[in-house]
Amino acid sequence: MAADGTRGWGPGGPWPERDIADGFDRLIAANRLFGAELNPSVLKKSGKGTPFLVRKPPLRHRMLALWRDLFENRVAPGELLALLSAEVHGLAHGDGLLLFGSDRLLYDCQILRGEESVGHLTLDLYRERDRIVPFLPFPTRPGHRVVYIEGISLTRQSTGYASALFRLYERLFHDLGFHLFRLKASLSVGKYYWAKEGFECTDREQFQEVRDGLWDLVRRLGLPVFEQEVRRLTHMSDVAAFRRDLKVPVWRDREGYYTFERDAAHSEEFLFPLGKAYLLCAAPWDGHKVIYTDTPRRTAFVWSEKYLSHGTPVGHPEGLRRLTALREAIRREGLLGSLIVTEPYMPGMEALHAVHDPAYLEAFREAVSRGDRYFATRDCAIGAGSYEAALLAAGGVMAGIDAVFSDRSDNAFCAVRPPGHHAGRATAMGFCFVNNVAVGASYARSAYGVARICILDWDAHHGNGTQDLFEEDPDTLFVSIHEHPSFCYPGTGRRMDRGKGAGAGATLNVPLSPHAGDKEMIGAFEREVVPAIEAFRPELILLSAGFDAHRDDSIADLECTEAAYVHMTRRLLELADRHCGGRVVSVLEGGYRVESFVASALAHIRTLQGREETPCSSAGG
Amino acid sequence: MFVGRRMKRDLVTVPPGASLSEAARLLKANRIHHLPVVEEGRLLGIVTDTDLRNATLRGAADEEVGAPRTVGEVMTRDVVTLSPEDTIDDAMLILSRQRLGALPVLDGDRLAGIVAKTDVLSALIDTLDIEGIGVRLEVILPRDMGEVTRLSAALGELPVEVRSLVLAPHGTDRYAAFVRVATIDASGVRERLRGKGFDVAELSDFYEPG
After folding, report:
1. Per-residue pLDDT tens over the stretch B7-39
2. Does the predicted TM-score (pTM) go above 0.90?
3. Measuring CA to CA, how many Å separate A245 from each of A272, A278, A518, A528?
4. In this predicted complex, what is the ipTM?
5. What's phi and psi for B202, nearest 5 deg?
6. For residues A572 and A575, what is the distance between their CA atoms, to the nearest angstrom?
């Protein structure tokens, strides 16, 4: 079998080392493989010039070791070169070289239109080393495999080339098992297209500047845009797609650069949607993109440090240790690179008032700013950061909903606290202040025109707040599976409660007897929950995901294990695939024994990503 | 608690001359089972849905006599009644012992209200706060008011709101105290009470899968 690229692309066994070595020899003979070392003078000045110095190739065994580490020998050298230089949009690569650095492989080429050189591209392929102790350089362990776009330059903006090339590369590096796709070069060219392709601003402060610039533009042009709409933007792709309904004039010069002011050079007028026009003219920014390797579904992970600022007293079950432990575990398990980490944002008050009484929220804010130790009831302990954290938790669900509707992710897990499902229109109880899923449902309706929403609540406690808010709404199916109210807080959620008025039949309560375990939980889920959701045909599924039905969690008397959460998550995704394009936004509620909570939440997240877990149990089905 | 406080005052009644079908319609429309039969404000009897059904069946079986036509013909004349000064305890005992469904309440000779089984159940639901937010704990105490005092002091020290507290006899020498607390962390409350030497039952342990 030839090892130089004649084999078709597809899953196959790894190449034998001998074939890899032969491939190196062929490329060396063809003057397409060299050694390289970084050019420190260029790096220091970060000016123009070649970022590396070409040398003779390193020793054979060092090249083989690097190849193994980067590709697990899933691709041969000549094959890689051929795949990287595929022709896209009439542009081809010339003089493509592979260069071996001490810990990285470089790809360098000219971008050609016919014979003419129109640009230059350098890729940097390496593996990050995770430091085991964060502040010590050693020891380390192998981390993510990264594709770094060291530099790309094009002599003119060639519409669509960058996005087409990166779509190709994304696929290629996905198949090769790479985790991250980063772009170092400042996006002076094609920044709109790259934003549209999901490249994210590397630096949060720089993103803040982009957002501020957009708001300045809106004010300068006097456009009918609320500040809240701009403040809500959290990703470059949101900016690129912002307010497609508003058309803004821009002027282009011969080189293909755009400005908002007409002048001698910029004389060709175009009308573009606001977000596109803004990014075409905006200052350069540094972008990167995450690509996903072994997860069939893209899962957004909504998280903010501010969720830790809701301080509760020592011994309070709903402590911040829950989230720090979950974050540590996600890092430890190497899940971070495969999750689309998403920042929540502060929701506008109108989004909150759609669910909560303004006077109630104001009383909550005042209690926090007065320094009260609890709000409304002794369970609801508060600290200085509680008001902001509670609002940001609702904003986290909104960010998760944005992620699935903008197609940045297939589903989302919102690791928020404080939890929300006991909170009613004007009631705080059971550690809850703002009903996060309810705010999310209302936001999905107003922002994305979703009509039929299913809220499934598998926390061990009845989601009484959510039920109260939606029991008269026929378009919201609320399904809660929980420990029987005669034994467990909050003492509501009996089977006979099926909704009220127009919403009669759109509430389903499934109480479980004390000591019920996986068999009973999964059985009830299959017998009652699945058919109800199936019949309702939701356009979005929100999940109040509490993990306190676990047998190690003493707050309730249920005795489930991670297997139940895996099973229910998987079945829920199947339902979502059938009815709503896989859109599931899972929102953290309870789960107080840290170990069992972390294990259950991890299993849930891994299943959301579509990873294979323990086989689906058929209990009760 | 007096019957006058719990009885239903907005009454649906029927005159003795009303037809059986009219009585049946009233029962169905108001989702009730008992109709006081009233003439000039005076109670003559009571008619239930069972009376109506039996009358119809009897009429069909015995064609010569013919089916009764009016409520007056089928009503129970010997009615067990209450007065507003009677207590809910009285009502509960009568309803339970005589297996009745509802008791008219007479103020002098005027019909003032009615107490049905469901009204008594509602009183019980309210007393035990079954519909309110909370979890029930069961504490077994020696039959000694000192222990009851100690329990209420212990509850007062906990960071929880007590929604209801019912003290019931438990055998001959003990009390069972049913405490309904408004906290999600009921297991924490149980642990703290046990730490103070109280015998707190795990309610869930009484559940035996069938």
Report:
1. 999 999 999 999 999 999 999 999 999 999 999
2. no
3. 10, 14, 50, 43
4. 0.84
5. -85, 105
6. 5
At residue B177's C-alpha, the angle toward residues B171 and B179, to 5°, is 155
C-alpha to C-alpha distance for B99 and B93, rounded to whole angstroms = 9
The H or E element that residue A357 is part of is none
Q: Across the strands, what pairs with A302?
A: A342, A414
Q: What average pLDDT does the segment B154-182 reach?
A: 92
What is the gyration radius of the CA atoms in chain B, in angstroms? Answer: 24
Nearest Cα residue to A387 out of A306, A490, A446: A306
Residue ranges of A 299-338 with Cβ closer than 8 A to chain B: 317
Q: Chain B residue closest to A464 (CA)?
A: B133
Active site residue A484: no
Q: How far apart are CA A88 and CA A171, in angstroms?
A: 14
Q: How far is CA A454 from the centre of its chain?
A: 22
Structure tokens at A156: 């003119």
Q: Give per-residue pLDDT as tens, A355-403.
A: 999 999 999 999 999 999 999 999 999 999 999 999 999 999 999 999 9
Residue closest to A440 by CA, chosen among A482, A492, A375, A391: A391
Neighbouring CB atoms inside 10 A of B68's CB total 18
Contact A49, A39 (CB under 8 A): yes
What is the spatial order of strands in the sheet that A140-154 belongs to?
A52-55, A33-38, A92-100, A104-113, A116-131, A140-154, A180-186, A286-290, A200-201
Structure tokens at B15: 């005159």
- Cα–Cα distance list, B159 to A166, A320, A598, B128 (Å): 58, 20, 28, 21
Q: Could you tell me which of A126, A143, A170 has the C-alpha nearest to residue A38?
A: A126
Q: Does A429 touch chain B (CB under 8 A)?
A: yes
Residue A298 CA to residue A50 CA, distance in Å, equals: 37
Interchain contact, A378 vs B161, CB within 8 Å: yes
Report residue B188 as tokens. 């924490």
